[in-house]
Amino acid sequence: IEWTYRLIAWSCLLHAKKTNGLPLWFSAWLCGTANDIFFMFMPFCDNFWQAQASVMITPRLPLYIVEMYAAIIYISTTAARQFNLPYVS
Q1: Whole-model pTM?
Q2: Mind listing the pLDDT tens digit for each residue in 23-55?
Q3: d(CA 64, CA 68)
């Protein structure tokens, strides 16, 4: 799964570069990572650990989690834009 997310995240980055979607890709990356780090430090949520991976950013944060956020948020937002789906209010 780790290398699958890595491939998808890099593919999304290339797609974003070709379609002027870099701000969206970087926003997905930043917001997803910030969300994970934020909840790691919340006392009432400090009860989860990610699986160990080949590349660990911190002892509790593997690189594939960061790549997963970039891939999933970018793909879903891009698809919603492509299909002209309405905003949720």
Answers
A1: 0.84
A2: 999 999 999 999 888 888 888 876 777 788 899
A3: 6
